[in-house]
Design goal:
Layout: H1 3-9, H2 24-27, H3 40-81, E1 85-86, H4 87-95, H5 102-117, E2 119-125, E3 130-135, H6 154-166, E4 171-172, H7 173-182, E5 190-191, E6 195-196, H8 197-207, E7 211-215, E8 224-228, H9 230-235, H10 238-248, H11 257-301
Antiparallel strand pairs: 1-3, 2-3, 4-8, 5-6, 7-8
């Protein structure tokens, strides 16, 4: 796939969820387009009432936004300390007086945790509503360092892996930075979530073997490109990354037929590889068992 073609058709990475949803009550409050006949006093009272309702809705949205931010911080702390999470604790410690909006708040927080930080919020007990936090797509890296201010950065890595895959498995550096600029991440600029992005991409994740950063052959002046590192190939698959990107953009993998076909082929090759390893392991076991039995037989014969 050509780079420019893939970039044009690739889903926009890391689309954050919409701002707070509206409750049914607030959604029902919309200015009427019907012209009512009446005194100017009634019109003014109606306008005042409508404005008051709109202001109330705005305050509710702002309050829910605050609760979303509070719950994200709460879950990040739980992720770092590896402590269990219960709905009861979330309600009593964070949501408090907005319990009626729990599902709305929790849904937005779950999406933000996945898209921004690469963390999935999974319910392990639907009866007692217990939750665990796991890395998205099974990636074991979280990009955190040993300080209180660091946060998981797996969400950024997933988007980069997606862009690399959708650009023919090898993305020019300028394509990566163009994608990151959509997310507010710029080369040489400190990001409030991801920190110094160049160091993260070209040193940290290269050393951890999630990315490969190399000079384009015969490029003058020197240009560089990104590829998947060996650890990325081991811990996740092209199909998982494609499914993730298309899911957050409300589409399906088949909407990108070339990438989808390649992802399926990759899955098939991986499956065949596992079968070969399994058969080789079984063959070694049979050889060992035969040698062992033969050895025992000769010993008994003596």
């Amino acid at each position: 796939m050509k780079v420019h073609d893939a970039a044009a058709r690739a889903p926009c990475p890391l689309q954050l969820p919409q701002r707070a949803y509206f409750s049914p009550t607030v959604m029902a409050v919309t200015p009427s387009t019907k012209l009512y006949q009446g005194s100017s006093r009634q019109e003014k009272e109606g306008a005042s009432t409508s404005q008051a309702l709109i202001d109330t809705g705005s305050l509710l949205r702002d309050a829910i936004d605050d609760k979303v931010a509070d719950l994200v911080g709460f879950l990040l702390l739980k992720y770092k300390t590896k402590e269990p999470i219960t709905k009861a604790e979330v309600l009593s410690s964070v949501i408090k007086e907005y319990k009626d909006h729990f599902l709305m708040i929790f849904d937005q927080v779950s999406k933000s945790m996945q898209l921004v930080f690469g963390i999935d919020v999974k319910e392990v007990d639907p009866t007692s509503h217990n939750y665990v936090l796991v890395n998205t797509l099974g990636l074991t890296c979280n990009g955190m360092v040993n300080d209180e201010q660091s946060v998981p950065k797996t969400g950024l890595l997933i988007n980069i892996l997606g862009v690399i895959f959708m650009n023919g498995n090898c993305a020019p550096e300028k394509v990566i930075w163009k994608m990151l600029s959509v997310m507010g991440v710029y080369d040489g600029r400190e990001h409030f979530i991801y920190g110094e992005s160049r160091e993260l991409l070209t040193r940290v994740w290269v050393q951890e073997q999630y990315l490969e950063y190399r000079q384009v052959p015969k490029s003058d002046p020197a240009q560089y490109e990104f590829l998947w590192g060996p650890r990325a190939h081991v811990e996740t698959t092209k199909l998982k990354v494609l499914e993730f990107l298309t899911q957050i953009n409300d589409t399906i993998p088949m909407a990108f037929p070339h990438c989808y076909e390649e992802a399926l082929k990759d899955e098939e090759e991986r499956s065949q590889g596992r079968v070969i390893v399994s058969e080789n392991g079984a063959a070694r076991t049979r050889v060992w068992a035969y040698s062992r039995a033969t050895s025992i037989s000769f010993s008994c014969g003596k």
